[in-house]
């Protein structure tokens, strides 16, 4: 209930605990909503009433940003009408609930209050006479938090609290207040704060758009006023809203914005300037100024050059050291060539600018937003990664380059000239691309302060459009600068003066003292540009890392904290050269005002009492802010672990290290590293090796292997080498055998697959068998000839070798080996090449050359010479394969390839390398390393295989840490005179020797594959019909994903043919469509699985199911399955004749039965009348109507459209030509070349005499013999018969009948033709 003349909270009444006084307008729990954080007080009136017959003194106490006043001049001046609308109670629970009451005070009325009266002192008590009421005012003010006020920031609500206590002796009334406050901020877009229109024409209208935006979560009121102007009447300038109404202010809701259209129509020549103030009525501190400036010339014609791009250029928030680019498009709308001269004027301090001009439609020299490294100081270095070649055609200051490629009827000549206004030296780079012979020129200028310089010039021919790419690079500022780490807005203007080219102007010299025609007719164009530039600054703490005393062979870690002190993201990179100190060397991006921790590990190997090293923390975008961290430690050997260095060294691969780093390794991927153990003694050593993971879950994630020795100490072949020589070729042959079995099921991958609407028959897509390949030395084999294209479970790209029994060498372009299971005694030698690696020559040995079972099992028997030669060849080949795996196995695949074929070959090679790891382990070539014996001064290799386990539902750990432990089992203690004798005695037993720890570490990443669709339902299809579908492979991880598509190998899988991209790479957080063609060969329900394997993550594969309902191929075709007749009376034949057109769709002669379904057989008549079909007696003599296929019908429709156009344009010769073509098409059923006057049928037209029709039962049943591809047109008439005399027949009822068409020997494949007509009763 609202009381007249009082605010809405006056109706809220609560009593104190003992009831001695009551309170109106101030509930025990109050929520003051939508309070502006503007430094002004919000007033809440309330009333206290004495409910007793005695005088009462009420003590007042407040906590928080609250104050109480008994007399407030602002509230006393509020009128009664305003009081009623001052407080809005949005939530008011019942009094007995004592719930929270939400109130909103009017911000419009509060803006009229004087803050001077609100600052007066408060009251601590109030005297109340018996049954009297006192009015008080509660004042609340919210202090604004210290936040950045940059454009683009969002301002949300904040919560403040307070407490009010009213006490009368022992009677108590508590009030808990919660206030939701928000800072009101007004912003403008674009943030240029000025509009400049140069070289205006009198009478022409120019429009520019601004936006006023509310950046806070609370509404605001704004006004726009003129502060300064050269035209007080403002008759030429209008400010309009989106509805074209005058605009001077308004209200903006939360996050709202409105458009301000600035329309300027000059009336007189001269300069025009107006300065406007956009003020936030709810916060006086939030205001914006903007300036409108225009220069009006005397000319009365339009511009020669128009600006097609945005009139204002905003580079947005920029980071120093990074290139940013924007495109500016000019168009010459005049009839003469125009020279456009560009210059820059304004605040360009600390900016480096470059330009590149190109024809419209050409590729940009730089992207719109460049993330190039700040370490690339020149334009040539910046664009080198994007262009094939970069040259400087002319190092002089003036360059003239001709562009032969025109646009919109013109070509351009670009002349780039740098004329600095100060003593700075310009930097010039010429840029040239290899596309269509285009050449671009770019010049750089380092501007200092508010300077002006000729930036660029170009010649634009009539009608031509030219695009200039303006690139901007901010130079880092020093740490002592005021704007260090803060956004600094820089504004400058790009001026363009256009004049007629020299060759089109009169050659007469102007009189002395007068301007030339070029200067007098020059037109000016201005483009305001702004950029918010910020230099990133970081701080590294602590500046000194002191590890203290670190025991040799012990890992100790400390952390560096890198803090980003700027308002823009910073990128840092640690650089150090040390075998003891390690930390991440990858670039680290730090969010604004955030910090990251970098772990620094120390693992000493030798005693060093004074170890010193430096870590350089580079700020990539501000090299002036590089930090140096000093590392100190003292290396001691309390456990005598350095004792191992006296006997052997650990080399990775050729450098002495005490750890091995695998780098980035995806989960479930298998990675290899080689660790060499080199004996530095002249006596043999025996070392025991044990692998141990730091985490129990990673215990089986890595293991160490050794290569099988080829010969023992006496020079004889070892038993293990003989077993490997026998097993490795057999395993390779078994792995490749699956490819040969399933090879014939896949269609030729290199064939061009047509569109689904015009796919040829299946026989042309899928050959029945693969022709055998002749085994000639000069044959060029294709890679897809010997790979498994259906199953590929055993796909192995064999790396062959060159045994002594085959010396033939094929061309170096060959990449795969013929692995057919034919019993041949010789094999082709092919060459497998890596990128920059040496070629590996090999071939699978024939079965006759393999080590016999007797020789392999009888180890005491010395192998024959040919067996020894074969064993040595197999072991050498396995070593070459291992070298290839170590060098070429990638955990993070590359993403840039010259062609799709190169990408396919790369992924297939990676699949082969992963497969060969299993083969080498399974064959015994790599055996687990438990004991390693080192010969005197010899070297043995340890192959460390890492395969970290992980699941998609479990978050991946960031690092993998494990250890390899080395223990000296046998060592030459008597040959070390330089060793302390006490130490030798102390380690007299092998169990007492210290154990050495070798670190194994890696950074783990996810490689997650997802499918866009797990089931692909094609629907209904016919046999040998083809359709195109696609798989969507999605990469849900940051690292690139290698995938391989495999099929089950069943007969049905041969119906799926992948066009391309069966093996490929998907970039991080990207997706890829893989198209395949489905052409079923058998009818029935089709369901086949397609497996998409993640090459790196064997557990991350997915399966998609392809489903279809395949029907039998139709043997004959009926043009229309419904024949409509005119009205007819019962018992009388129809007067019109319909044609039943049937065509043979097979290459064989077909015998068809066409009969009418009699009335006794019809069960669907519901009107009492059924139609019976009759075939006229002269059917055999009827002229058959030709059936037209879909392609012919489309050609006829196209010709009919051309005929209508020719008739409309009155072209009689074309009308006759099109009519002749249409007549021949409708008569022959096909057309040849559409551009030729002679029309020929594409398919042979069957002879009508080959069609035979015989009557079987009166006029209701026929037998039709159709030749291959033949068709027939059968006239049909119907007669209405009474099917049920009891049914009342009504005029207009629809009567139906049925024609049945089927083959003589196949009654299952039946087609029904519906006959329909309207019945009319005979009066």
Can you offer a commentary on this structure?
The protein is mostly beta strands and 1323 residues long. The protein contains 14 helices and 74 strands. Strands 65, 66, 67, 68, 69, 70, 71, 72, 73 and 74 form a ten-stranded mixed sheet that branches. Strands 7-8-3-12-11-5-9 form a seven-stranded mixed sheet. A hairpin with a 6-residue loop joins strand 20 and strand 21 (287-296). Helix 7 (719-742) crosses helix 10 and helix 10 (865-888) packs across helix 11. It is extended and about 125 Å long.
Give a quick precis of the structure.
The chain has 1323 residues and is mainly β.
Overview features:
14 helices; single chain; mainly beta; 1323 residues
Task: Set down the secondary structure blueprint.
Blueprint: E1 13-15, E2 21-24, E3 29-36, E4 42-50, E5 56-63, E6 66-69, H1 73-76, H2 80-86, E7 87-91, E8 101-105, H3 107-110, H4 115-118, E9 125-128, E10 133-140, E11 158-168, E12 171-182, E13 186-189, E14 194-200, E15 206-214, E16 220-229, E17 237-240, E18 249-252, E19 257-264, E20 270-280, E21 287-296, E22 305-307, E23 313-319, E24 323-332, E25 338-347, E26 351-359, H5 379-383, E27 398-403, E28 412-417, E29 427-432, E30 439-447, E31 450-460, E32 465-474, E33 488-500, H6 517-520, E34 523-534, E35 538-541, E36 544-551, E37 556-564, E38 570-575, E39 581-582, E40 588-590, E41 595-602, E42 608-619, E43 627-636, E44 648-651, E45 659-666, E46 671-679, E47 685-693, E48 702-707, H7 719-742, H8 762-765, E49 830-832, E50 840-842, H9 853-857, H10 865-888, H11 900-923, E51 926-928, E52 931-934, E53 939-946, E54 959-970, H12 981-986, E55 996-1005, E56 1009-1011, E57 1015-1022, E58 1027-1035, E59 1041-1047, E60 1056-1058, E61 1063-1066, E62 1071-1078, E63 1084-1094, E64 1102-1111, E65 1116-1118, E66 1122-1124, E67 1138-1144, E68 1150-1156, ...
Parallel strand pairs: 3-8, 3-12, 14-21, 23-34, 36-43, 45-55, 57-64, 66-74, 69-73
Antiparallel strand pairs: 1-2, 2-4, 4-10, 5-9, 5-11, 6-10, 7-8, 11-12, 13-15, 15-19, 16-18, 16-20, 17-19, 20-21, 22-24, 24-32, 25-31, 25-33, 26-30, 26-32, 27-28, 28-31, 29-30, 33-34, 35-37, 37-41, 38-40, 38-42, 39-41, 42-43, 44-46, 46-53, 47-52, 47-54, 48-51, 48-53, 49-50, 54-55, 56-58, 58-62, ...
């Amino acid at each position: 209930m609202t009381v007249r003349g009082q605010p809405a909270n006056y109706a809220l009444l609560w009593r104190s605990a003992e009831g001695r006084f009551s309170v109106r307008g101030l509930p025990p729990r109050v929520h003051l909503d939508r309070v502006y954080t503007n430094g002004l007080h919000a007033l809440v009136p309330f009333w206290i009433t004495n409910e007793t017959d005695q005088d009462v003194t009420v003590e007042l106490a407040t906590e928080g940003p609250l104050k109480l006043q008994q007399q407030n001049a602002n509230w006393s001046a509020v009128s009664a009408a305003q009081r009623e609308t001052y407080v809005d109670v949005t939530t008011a629970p019942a009094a007995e609930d004592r719930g929270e009451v939400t109130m909103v005070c009017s911000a419009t009325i509060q803006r009229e209050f004087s803050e001077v009266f609100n600052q007066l002192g408060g009251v601590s008590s109030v005297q109340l006479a018996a049954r009297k009421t006192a009015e008080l005012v509660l004042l609340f003010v919210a202090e604004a938090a210290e936040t950045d006020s940059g454009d683009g920031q969002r301002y949300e609500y904040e919560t403040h609290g307070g407490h009010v206590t009213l006490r009368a002796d022992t009677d108590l009334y508590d009030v808990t207040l919660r206030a939701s406050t928000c800072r009101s901020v007004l912003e403008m877009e674009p943030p240029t704060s000025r509009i400049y229109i140069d070289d205006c024409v009198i009478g022409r209208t120019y429009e520019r758009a601004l936006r006023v935006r509310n950046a806070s979560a609370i509404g605001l009121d704004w006004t726009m006023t003129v502060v300064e102007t050269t035209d007080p009447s403002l008759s030429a300038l209008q400010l309009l809203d989106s509805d074209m109404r005058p605009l001077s202010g308004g209200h903006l809701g939360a996050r709202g914005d409105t458009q301000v259209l600035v329309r300027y129509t000059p009336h007189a020549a001269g300069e025009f300037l107006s300065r406007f103030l956009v003020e936030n009525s709810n916060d006086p501190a939030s205001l914006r100024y903007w300036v409108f400036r225009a220069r009006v010339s005397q000319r009365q014609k339009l511009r020669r050059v128009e600006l097609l791009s945005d009139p204002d250029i905003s580079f947005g928030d920029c980071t120093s050291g990074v290139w940013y680019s924007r495109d500016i498009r000019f168009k010459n709308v005049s009839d003469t060539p125009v020279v456009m001269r560009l210059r820059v004027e304004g605040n360009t301090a600390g900016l480096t600018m470059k330009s590149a001009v190109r024809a419209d439609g050409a590729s940009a020299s730089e992207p719109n937003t460049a993330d190039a490294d700040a370490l690339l100081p020149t334009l040539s270095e910046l664009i080198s990664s994007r262009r094939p070649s970069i040259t400087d055609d002319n190092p002089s200051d003036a360059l003239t380059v001709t562009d032969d490629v025109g646009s919109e009827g013109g070509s351009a000549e670009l002349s780039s000239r740098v004329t600095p206004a100060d003593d700075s030296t310009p930097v010039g780079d010429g840029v040239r691309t290899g596309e269509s012979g285009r050449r671009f020129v770019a010049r750089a200028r380092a501007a200092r302060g508010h300077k002006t310089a000729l930036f660029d010039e170009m010649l634009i021919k009539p009608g031509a459009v030219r695009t200039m790419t303006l690139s901007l690079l901010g130079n880092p500022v020093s740490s002592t600068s005021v704007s260090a780490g803060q956004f600094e807005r820089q504004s400058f203007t790009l001026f363009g003066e256009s004049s007629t080219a020299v060759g089109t102007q009169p050659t007469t010299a102007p009189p002395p003292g007068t301007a030339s025609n070029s200067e007098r007719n020059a037109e000016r164009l201005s483009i305001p540009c702004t950029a918010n530039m910020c230099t990133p600054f970081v701080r590294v703490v602590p500046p000194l890392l002191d590890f203290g005393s670190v025991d040799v062979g012990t890992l100790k870690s400390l952390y560096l904290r890198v803090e980003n002190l700027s308002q823009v993201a910073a990128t840092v990179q640690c650089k150090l050269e040390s075998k003891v100190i390690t930390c991440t060397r990858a670039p680290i991006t730090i969010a604004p005002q955030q910090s990251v921790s970098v772990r620094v590990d120390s693992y000493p190997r030798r005693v060093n009492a004074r170890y010193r090293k430096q870590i350089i923390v580079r700020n990539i975008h501000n090299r002036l802010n590089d930090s140096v961290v000093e590392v100190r430690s003292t290396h001691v050997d309390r456990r005598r672990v350095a004792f191992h260095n006296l006997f052997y060294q650990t080399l990775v691969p050729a450098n002495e290290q005490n750890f091995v780093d695998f780098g980035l390794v995806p989960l479930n991927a298998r990675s290899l590293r080689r660790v060499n153990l080199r004996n530095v003694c002249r006596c043999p050593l025996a070392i025991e090796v044990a692998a141990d993971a730091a985490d129990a879950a990673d215990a089986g994630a890595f293991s160490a292997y050794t290569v099988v020795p080829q010969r023992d100490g006496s020079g004889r072949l070892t038993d293990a080498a003989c077993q490997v020589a026998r097993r490795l070729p057999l395993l390779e042959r078994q792995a490749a055998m699956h490819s040969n079995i399933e090879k014939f099921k896949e269609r030729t991958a290199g064939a061009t697959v047509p569109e689904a609407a015009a796919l040829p028959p299946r026989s042309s897509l899928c050959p029945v068998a693969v022709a055998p390949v002749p085994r000639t030395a000069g044959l060029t084999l294709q890679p897809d000839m010997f790979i498994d294209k259906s199953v590929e479970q055993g796909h192995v790209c064999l790396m062959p070798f060159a045994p002594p029994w085959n010396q033939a060498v094929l061309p170096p372009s060959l990449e795969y080996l013929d692995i057919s299971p034919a019993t041949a005694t010789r094999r082709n030698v092919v060459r497998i090449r890596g990128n920059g690696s040496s070629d590996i020559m090999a071939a699978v040995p024939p079965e006759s050359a393999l080590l016999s079972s007797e020789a392999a099992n009888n180890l005491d028997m010395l192998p024959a010479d040919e067996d020894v030669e074969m064993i040595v060849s197999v072991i050498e080949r396995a070593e070459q394969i291992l070298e290839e795996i170590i060098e070429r196995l990638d955990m993070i695949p590359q993403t840039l390839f010259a062609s799709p074929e190169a990408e396919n070959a790369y992924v297939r090679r990676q699949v082969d390398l992963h497969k060969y790891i299993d083969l080498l382990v399974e064959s015994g070539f790599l055996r687990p390393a438990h004991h390693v014996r080192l010969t005197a001064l010899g070297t043995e290799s340890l192959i460390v295989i890492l395969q970290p386990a992980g699941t998609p539902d479990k978050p991946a750990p960031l690092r993998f840490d494990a250890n390899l432990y080395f223990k000296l089992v046998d060592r030459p203690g008597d040959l070390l005179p330089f060793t302390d004798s006490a130490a030798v005695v102390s380690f007299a037993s092998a169990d007492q020797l210290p154990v050495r720890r070798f670190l194994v570490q890696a950074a783990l990443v996810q490689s997650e594959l997802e499918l866009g669709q797990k089931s692909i339902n094609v629907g209904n299809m016919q046999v040998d019909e083809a359709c195109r579908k696609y798989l969507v492979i999605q990469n849900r991880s940051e690292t690139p994903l290698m995938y391989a598509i495999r099929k089950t190998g069943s007969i049905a899988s041969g119906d799926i043919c992948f066009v391309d991209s069966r093996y490929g790479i998907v970039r991080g957080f990207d997706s890829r469509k893989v198209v395949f063609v489905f052409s079923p060969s058998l009818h029935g329900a089709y369901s086949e699985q397609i497996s998409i394997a993640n090459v790196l993550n064997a557990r991350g594969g997915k399966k998609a199911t392809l489903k279809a309902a395949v029907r039998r191929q139709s043997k004959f075709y009926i043009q229309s399955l419904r024949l409509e007749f005119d009205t007819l009376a019962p018992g009388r034949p129809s007067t019109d004749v319909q044609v039943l057109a049937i065509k043979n769709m097979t290459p064989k002669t077909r015998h068809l039965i066409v009969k009418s379904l009699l009335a006794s057989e019809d069960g669907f008549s519901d009107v009492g009348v059924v139609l019976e079909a009759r075939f006229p007696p002269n059917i055999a003599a009827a002229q058959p109507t030709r059936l037209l296929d879909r392609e012919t019908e489309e050609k006829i429709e196209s010709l009919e459209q051309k005929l209508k156009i020719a008739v409309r344009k009155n072209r009689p010769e074309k009308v006759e030509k099109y009519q002749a073509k249409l007549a021949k098409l409708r008569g022959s059923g096909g057309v040849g070349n559409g551009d030729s006057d002679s029309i020929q049928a594409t398919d042979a037209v069957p002879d009508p005499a080959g069609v035979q029709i015989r009557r079987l039962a009166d006029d209701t049943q026929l037998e039709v013999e159709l030749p291959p591809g033949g068709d027939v047109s059968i006239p049909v008439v119907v007669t209405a018969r009474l099917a049920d005399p009891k049914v009342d027949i009504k005029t207009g009822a629809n009567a139906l009948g049925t024609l049945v068409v089927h083959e003589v020997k196949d009654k299952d494949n039946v087609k029904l033709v519906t006959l329909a007509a309207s019945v009319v009763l005979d009066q």
